[in-house]
Amino acid sequence: MPIISNVTVQDVRFPTSLELDGSDAVNVDPDYSAAYVMVTADNGEVGHGFVFSCGRGNEVIVSAIESYGELLVGRELDDLVADLGAASRLLVHDSQMRWLGPEKGVSHMAAGAVINALWDIAARREGKPLWRYLAELSPEEIVRAIDFTHISDALSPQEALEILQAGQRGKEERLRELEQDGFPAYTTSPGWLGYSDEKMVRLSKEAVDNGFDLIKLKVGGEVESDRRRMRIVREAVGEDIKVAIDANQRWDVPDAIEWLQQLSEFNPWWIEEATSTDDVLGHATIRKAISPMKVATGEAVHNRIIVKQLLQAQAIDVLQIDSTRVAGVNENLANLLLAKKFDIPVCPHAGGVGLCELVQHFSFFDYAAVSGSFENRYIEYVDHLHEHFAEPVVIRNARYQAPKKPGIGAEMHANSRAQWTFPEGEGWQEVGGRAAVSGAEHKHH
Amino acid sequence: MPIISNVTVQDVRFPTSLELDGSDAVNVDPDYSAAYVMVTADNGEVGHGFVFSCGRGNEVIVSAIESYGELLVGRELDDLVADLGAASRLLVHDSQMRWLGPEKGVSHMAAGAVINALWDIAARREGKPLWRYLAELSPEEIVRAIDFTHISDALSPQEALEILQAGQRGKEERLRELEQDGFPAYTTSPGWLGYSDEKMVRLSKEAVDNGFDLIKLKVGGEVESDRRRMRIVREAVGEDIKVAIDANQRWDVPDAIEWLQQLSEFNPWWIEEATSTDDVLGHATIRKAISPMKVATGEAVHNRIIVKQLLQAQAIDVLQIDSTRVAGVNENLANLLLAKKFDIPVCPHAGGVGLCELVQHFSFFDYAAVSGSFENRYIEYVDHLHEHFAEPVVIRNARYQAPKKPGIGAEMHANSRAQWTFPEGEGWQEVGGRAAVSGAEHKHH
C-alpha cells in the first residue's frame, strides 16, 4: 500500500508586472505566481496542484500548503484516493486549522491545492483528464465527494443526485461533441487597463478575426476613460460582438450603479465584480438597478456558502468559478451543482498562470454531465504563460479543445519552475529582481 | 525621525487541549495560540499585537505577519502613527497581497495584528489605554481612520461623523462612570462542551454567586444532551439569570431551526453562531423562524462588509466583534459605527488567549463615545491565561474594570512568550509536546 512520503512546495513567480499584462483597476502590478505543490507517495506516484496569486504573499500560501501537507504525510494514498470527499473534509475541517478561515482566504486556497493534487493522482491512475474522469464517475460518487455543510438548505444531497442522474441522459453524445469541437471561449487579452487605446483596438479586432464573439475589457479607472474605451472598441468590433466589462471590485454599490448607467449605451454583455464579492446584497441591489445588463462574479468568491447566497439572493446572472480559490475539485463540484439548481450559467474565471489549464476541466464536465448546455457559457481565455505547462490549453475556432493528458492539468514544467522560483531562480536573477523592486516601490505611492 | 527597524514574530501556543478548556461542537481540541508581533523603531519604541488561533496553523499566520512586516520596515514611524487610516490601507490594499483575501482569513488577521501594533505605539505615545485614546480623538480623527470601501451604501463618512458628534454629548460623565464601575461582563467559563454536568452546574452557580446575570453554554453536540444541560443549568440558576447558547457554526439552516425549537422551552437569551458566519441569508432565515430568541454572531465574521450585510438583512440581534479577526482597530471602529447605525448592541467575543485584554477597549470606547448605553451589552469573559499579560483584565462585581496601562492591552510577558514558544519553548518540552501529539493523533479519527 503506497504511503504519502512527502509534500513539497515551490514559490514560482513570473515578472508580469514589467509588461502590465493583467493590469486592472485594483490589480495594478501583478506578478503572476503559483504556490506549487507536489504530493509524492513512496511508490513514486506524484500529484500536482497549485494556488494562483499576484506575487507578494505567495510565500504565505506556500507556508499554508506545507502545514496542510503535514496532515497527509504518512497516510495511505489508496484510502485518500478512494474517498476524496473524506480527504477534503480531513483538511478543510481540521479542528485547529479551521480557525484560520474558516473556509476562506489563504488557508482555504492552500487546502484546495493539496486536495487537487490528490485528484490529480486519482485521474492519472485512471489514465484520464479530470473532466472525463469526473464525467465517468457515477452520480453517487460525485455526491459523495461534495461537502454539503452549510449549503443543504439550497441543495440537498438528494437534489444533487437527481441533477446528476438527469445529466446522464445524452452524456455519451456530449462527450463525443466535446472531444470533437471543444467548449466556447472568450478572451480578455485585448482589454487590460494598462494597454494603450491602439493596442486594445488592434487586439480586439484580432480576437474577432480569430472567431471570438465575446471579449472583455477592464474598467473602473476613470468613467470618461471607460466611456472612450468602450466606444472605440464598439466601433472597432460592431454591434454583434458581445463586450463584457470587469471592474475588479473597484466600486461601492452607489458608485457602481451610477458608473454603469454611464456605460449602458455601449451595451456591455455583463459587468463583472462590480463591487466586493463578499457583498451578496450589494450585487443584488446593483443587478436590480442596471437590469437588463447581466451581473457576473465569482473569481474571488471564497466558498460554496457565498455562491449559495449569490444564487438565493438573485444577485448574479453568471457564476465565474475559479479553480484555485476554493477547496479544490470537491467544492467546485458543489458550485456547479448549485448553479444548475438555480439555472445560472457558469463561465469560469481564467488567466493568471495555469488557471486556463485547470478550470477548463470544470466546464467540460459541466457540459457533459450537469448543465448539458453551451447557452451563454464561455471559459475565459488569456494568452500568456501557457508554455510553462505540460499540456498547454489549445484554442481552435475560439473554443477550448478537450484536454487529453491524464490528470487535472496542473503540471508545470520542472525547468520553468526552477527558472522562476522566487527569488533565487535564474529568471529572477536575469531580470535583476526588477518586478520585485517595482513591487517594493509601489508602497511609496 | 524614528524609522521602523524590525518586525519580529513569535509562535506562542498554550497546551489547553490537555484540559478541554475551550472545547465546543467544532473546536474540539484547541491549543490557544498567538501569532505575536512586535513592531520596533530605531529609537526603541515598540508596539505589540497578535492574532489568536487554535494551534495548528499558527505558523501560517506568523508567515503572513512577517510578509506584512516587510512592507513597514524602513518607513517613518511618525508618518504611520499620524495617519493610521492610511497605514491600514497601505497593508490591507497592497496591490499584490490583496489577492490572498481579499480582506479575509489569514492575510486579513495578519494585517490586523501589524496595524494593531501601530495603534499600540500611538496610544503609548499619548500615555493612554486604547479605549481612552480613542474616546479622546475627535470625531473627524476617528472617521479618518476608517476605511469606508464597500460599506458606504450603509454608512457614509458623513453619517459616521454625525454618530460620533452625537456621542460627544455626555462623554465626560460616561468616562468617569467607566473608570469607576467598569463595563458589564458575561461568562462562558461554566459551559464548555467537554465539561461534566457536575462541573458545569458548579461553575454556573459560582458565576451567579459572583454577580453574573448572563452565562453561556456551548451546544450542538447531541440535541438530547443539550436539552439535559440546559435543563439542569436552568434548575441551578433559576429563571432570572440569562443563559445564552453557542453552537459554533455547527448547524445547517434547517437543522438550526429544528434544534432551537427543541431548546426554546429553556428560554435561551441568544443563540450564537447557529450556522456559518458567512451565511448572512441563513442567519436571517433562522432569526425569523425562532423569534423572539435573539440571534448573535461575529467572532468569525471576517470583515466589515459581512457585518454590513448582517445588519442590512436584519439577520442579528447582537453583534459580537472580535479583536483579532478583522484588520485591526480601524475595522472594528467601522463595525461599532455600523452597529450603532442599525441600533444593534455590540457584545464582543473574548476568551482564547488575550482576547479579553484586547477587546474590552472597544466596549469601553463604544459606551463612552458611540452607543452611550449598557442596555443588552456585555463583554464575554473567560477565566484563563490572563496571567501571561502585562495588564490582565480585572473583573469586579461581574464587570470589566477600566484598563489603565498605556497601549492596546496586547503585551504578553516576555517570559511567557519564551516558555510557550512552539515547539522549542521550555513549557512544550515539559509537557512532552503532548498537546501537539494529541493534535497529530486527531487526524487518524
Automatic annotation (TrEMBL), chains A, B:
Residues 197-293 form the Mandelate racemase/muconate lactonizing enzyme C-terminal domain. SMART domains: MR_MLE. Its cofactor is Mg(2+). One of its GO terms (molecular function) is L-fuconate dehydratase activity. GO terms for biological process: carbohydrate catabolic process. InterPro entries: Enolase-like_C_sf, Enolase-like_N, Enolase_C-like, L-fuconate_dehydratase, Mandelate_racemase_C, Mandelate_racemase_N_dom, RHMD-like. Coiled coil: none annotated. Keywords: Lyase, Magnesium, Metal-binding. It catalyses: L-fuconate = 2-dehydro-3-deoxy-L-fuconate + H2O. It is an enzyme of class 4 (lyase). Gene3D superfamilies: Enolase-like C-terminal domain (3.20.20.120), Enolase-like, N-terminal domain (3.30.390.10). Its EC number is 4.2.1.68. Signal peptide: none annotated. This is L-fuconate dehydratase. It comes from Nesterenkonia salmonea.
